[in-house]
Amino acid sequence: MNALDPDALLGTLTLEGARVAVLGYDAEARDHAVALRRAGNHVVIGVLPDTPVWWRAVGDGFEVDQPGNVVTSADVVVVRAHEETEVWRQAKEQIAGGALVVFACARALHTGRCARSGMDVVLVTSVEDARVGCRIAVHRDVSRKALARAIAYARAAYRADVPMRSTFVSEEAELEHTSVKERSASLLALTVQSAPLPPVAEPSNAWSADDEPAPADIDDAGWFYGMMNRRGTP
């Protein structure tokens, strides 16, 4: 990976005044939406109707609509989900030609999730270390300006001086795959090392003479009926 010099590419240009469609509204998508709005963009959230995330986005002051509707006139489409979702399935065929589609997951691109032509498609990773910043890869460059557009997006989504490095989708997909395997192995190791739970004793319905009331404690009739009831006699 090589460090990018954004100033050499487009000065201090930051994405501003664009119509941005953010698909999904988990914590990461919300952070991006808020930052992009703060940078002066018109941000619309695309989620399934009448869901908790729909009302959460409304509560945060965003315009919200169904996925297929928000992307038709968007200059930038942001896809933060790591897995195939109903939101993406509804939106992918409706994305306007010439749009910039920003993915956060390299595996999604590497497996061909975004197969349509006619639009710029880039990978902009999350900022896991402030000193390293984010990594950018160009997956499809229709406009011949995809890298510059991705840098402008990263400046708006994170901060104007965020460090950036160039990378490749295939390399990032391999890193993601390795990370998933390592997390799975760690979880399996924790499961194996965990102490087994002690067996839970089954309640017993067997009759025992020790459970019977002593005849001296109650009258003869009470002792007889008590003994019959404890043995389950109707």
Could you outline the blueprint of secondary structure elements for this entry?
Layout: E1 2-3, H1 6-10, E2 19-23, H2 27-38, E3 42-46, H3 52-59, E4 63-65, H4 67-70, E5 76-79, H5 86-91, E6 100-103, H6 106-110, E7 120-124, E8 134-140, H7 146-157, E9 164-166, H8 169-193, H9 220-230
Parallel strand pairs: 2-3, 2-5, 3-4, 5-6, 6-7, 8-9
Antiparallel strand pairs: 1-9, 7-8
Structure, explained:
The protein is α/β, with parallel strands linked by helices. Helix content is 38%, strand content 16%. It has a single domain (2-171), classed as Rossmann fold, CATH 3.40.50.720. It has helices spanning 6-10, 27-38, 52-59, 67-70, 86-91, 106-110, 146-157, 169-193, 220-230, and strands spanning 2-3, 19-23, 42-46, 63-65, 76-79, 100-103, 120-124, 134-140, 164-166. The protein has a nine-stranded mixed β-sheet with strand order 1-9-8-7-6-5-2-3-4. Mean pLDDT is 81; it is low at 180-185.
Distance between the termini: 82 Å
CATH class: Alpha Beta
Helix content: 25-40%
β-sheet strand percentage:
15-25%
Largest sheet: 9 strands, mixed
Number of domains: 1
> In the CATH scheme, what's the topology name?
Rossmann fold
- Quaternary state of this entry equals single chain
Class by SSE composition: alpha/beta
SSE topology string: EHEHEHEHEHEHEEHEHH
Inertia-based shape: globular
Structure annotation, total helices: 9
Question: What order do the strands of the largest sheet run in, or round the barrel if closed?
Answer: 1-9-8-7-6-5-2-3-4
How many β-strands, per DSSP? 9
The residue ranges in which pLDDT falls below 50 over 5 or more consecutive positions are 180-185
Task: Give the C-alpha Rg.
Answer: 30 Å
The CATH architecture assignment turns out to be 3-Layer(aba) Sandwich
In round numbers, the mean pLDDT is 81
